[in-house]
Amino acid sequence: MIVEVIETKNKQETLKVKLEDRELFIHSSYNPEREAQHILKKELTQDFNSDTHVVFLGLGLGYHVSQFTKQYQQNSYSIIEPSLEIFNVASDLIQLEEVFNKNVAHLFVGEMYSVRQIVDQIYKESATRVEIVISPTYKQLFSKLINEFVSESKKMIRQKRSELATNYNFQFNWIENSIKNHKHVLNTPNILDDSFKERFSDKPVIIVSAGPSLSDDIESIRSIKQNNLAYIFSVGSAINTLITYDVIPDAVFSYDPGDKNHLVFEKMIDQDKDAIPLVYGSSVGHQLLENFRGPKYHFITSQDYTSRLLLGDQIGKNELVLDSPSIAVMTFQIVNKLGMSPIIFAGQNLGYLYNRRYAQGVDYDFIDSELTEQEVDHAEEVKDVYGNNIKTNIGFNSMRNALVQFASTFKGEYYNTTKGGAAIEGIPFKTIEDLLNDNLQQSIDKKIWPINKKSYDLSDYDKKKEDIQLSYESFVEEKARLEYTLNKIKEETGKKKLEKLFTKIDNELTKFENNQFFTHFIVQSIRVEHDLLIQKINRVAKKETTDKKKEIIQMFRGYNASLTTVLVKLVLVLQEEGILNNGNAKTERNLV
């Protein structure tokens, strides 16, 4: 590529790019500035506002970027210039202060980063809407890169929306469940204790999921169970298929924090099958533990801030199970930490088969097992274990990616028996029939699981509760001071005094962040609102004092309402569970 500077008809400058088969102008050869205005008008959507982050795909001589920085002085933006040759020429000609101001977040030049890395950086740091402005000539010069960038951006947007929805829907459930389940955690064994590692190490295990292919493997799973060739661990809804076919697993695993999760085990409980051990995540829906009569074993999830605070160092890195998109992924972590091998997946479709979401035997009132036409029409495509395209969705894809990540981290011996399921990198496909012939030929000794063993030293437990009580009382006082400062900001008009009050707000938020009760309970219960607040504060910090006042009042009004609501609910739950004291007059006054 040869880049040449050309004078335009109106005495401005443009760039001519010479390729082997053609020549292209990067900007208009007549009036680049007018063209820049047209580009912005065409590319920015009706939803564009002062919070929108703009990605300029193609810098050239920066006419459109310069126009943007003059017209939209509050917006953040990033620049991607795919050509190092164009950037080198442009950097000698453009007015840098007009193109790169305080709001520029990223500059990517040439091929230093992959498209995926660029997308990750831009969308990871941007909590606002993102719009892409593409210079017309770049659509011709770099069509492959642009198509890949747009495709990866759409995937990232869907992923962020899914994560945001999950966090918003479950943020209070995680904390409420971890508080209500804590008494069960103290009185049941941790499945990752050393005694369990000795019991399960080097033993084969089948993680049985509820995908439509499970029915194809069910008779082989029955044979494996009858002959003690491997442990059978049922995850999520698979227990209903197993019970339908009268195959009793060695344990059932559950972690879903939703208030309907216990309904998954209704059939098992109603048929008096709850002698099967239940291995539960400590932030699982508390209704399950209240209804389940059989032996229970727990694992501490990364969403359980109650146990992490009250048990402290007793929950080491190896005992913490990272919250994941599915119970199959959580169980995969657990069996790897237990040293089980080989680890085999059955019914792990991660895609659609037979137009069903679940295997036969799985039917609920609150979710259809059969797919709707809309779900099929909006599905994505991935490769299955045979190399064919199958339809899937963002949730299944997220599960598959998580399995790929943990398979790469643990590097054990893994197999996927799911006929017609999505291919999982690092977990090769092998039919269950071949596994029976090649890998599962010796019976194993399945020792009885201990029931009454407790896993934690509670010698300083009361002291930990006292610390939480003191931290809570301190937080209520800090919250009152924050509200007082906000009221002063509403009344104040002087610029210097307002700036001092803004500094005071920052200091009071820092005290929040250093408060144990706030970081382990409050912020985890309103994490979506809290993240948005911090991102807005960082954006508002760049504004003028008068504009800043209005926005600070507005954003703290909503945030403080969410904080107050969740504080009242949390205190009631913590008092019911005996973690906070009842009837503290000093703190109750400040809650209203």
From TrEMBL:
Q: Which residues form a coiled coil?
A: 472-515
Q: Which UniProt keywords apply?
A: Coiled coil
What positions does the domain 6-hydroxymethylpterin diphosphokinase MptE-like occupy? 177-353
Q: Name one matching Pfam family.
A: MptE-like
Q: By its UniProt entry, which InterPro entries does this protein fall under?
A: MptE-like (IPR002826)
Would the keyword Coiled coil turn up in this protein's UniProt record?
yes
**Quick check: keyword rRNA-binding in the entry?**
no
Question: PANTHER family from the entry?
Answer: 6-HYDROXYMETHYLPTERIN DIPHOSPHOKINASE MPTE-LIKE DOMAIN-CONTAINING PROTEIN, MOTILITY ACCESSORY FACTOR MAF
Could you identify this protein by its name? Answer: 6-hydroxymethylpterin diphosphokinase MptE-like domain-containing protein
Show the taxonomic lineage: Bacteria, Bacillati, Bacillota, Bacilli, Bacillales
